[in-house]
Design a protein that fits this description.
alpha+beta; Phosphorylase Kinase, domain 1; five-stranded antiparallel β-sheet; four-stranded mixed β-sheet; 11 strands
Amino acid sequence: MSGWTEDGLARAWRALARQEAAEDWRFVHLTGMGAVSVEAGCHFPLGREALIVSFPGSWPVNPARLPEGKGFDVSCIEGQSVFAGKTAIALVRRPEGSPDIFAIMVVDVLRTLEAAASTANRDVLDAFLERVREWQAFMARTHRPLSPDVQIGLLGELWMLRLLADTSLGAGALDCWQGPLRAAQDFHVRGGAIEVKSTVRTGSFLARINSIEQLDGDRTPIFLSAFRFEENTDGISLAGLVSELRERLGLAGVQRGFEALLMVMGYLDEHAPLYGRTLTLKDARALRVEGDMPRLTRAALPAAIRSAAYVLDLDALEIPSIGLSELIKEFGLD
């Protein structure tokens, strides 16, 4: 399942888009995850893209339990022979919903399903509905201009994306950018991960760690990359870096995916004139998350603590750091 991409789903939906006779639905099987079956679908008469997840057993689902929101509908499918004896829940793009964001969401939901299906004692249906609710909350969000801190955070992530794209990964670096999809770390590179923290403030580099898992995951190695920017008329703005990456990724044929991730991050072109402050990278270092590095870890916390966020003073850490070129080598890239 991890091999599915937004473009792959788009091809499946295009193949389903031709309505035959007076049918309401067309389906194609994507994969199975144990007893759970996953289909791509197309709902007529409007030919709307859909993902259908069916669970074993036929039992009533309380409509009030299904998430509601903007961008896509969530409903049970009934009367379709392919789902006989099953409970089938469909995510269907609304006419006003962005096709690109819908495809990004579907891939993320599939990965969530896969992770839940491989985890003992995890209720797959509950994991599925929880993830869908998170996406519905995002779709319903009012998109205001990014705050100054969020702008710097996004600039740092795009800086890292460009750095990875300069390696043997090429345009494949876009697949590593998992932060917009609510992954614990911003980038998943091969078996490891990179979490990016950025600042323009002078004084101590205070990094907000948003979850226990951000610096305590199963991936290895995990690095915390710290970028300190400063204002400089010879630098590059957030809008400028977005334009540069658009051109580069467009030539590689992956601009649609990049645009969708930008929208998920809250970057809209209508706000671009507000993102013109030019910055240069003053300092960059990477810290390996292991051993004596101060951080919260799940194993060291009482089971009653379900989640936590905290602030880490990176300048107070008494552990060695490496530069960006060494960081790239740590992942076997050139």
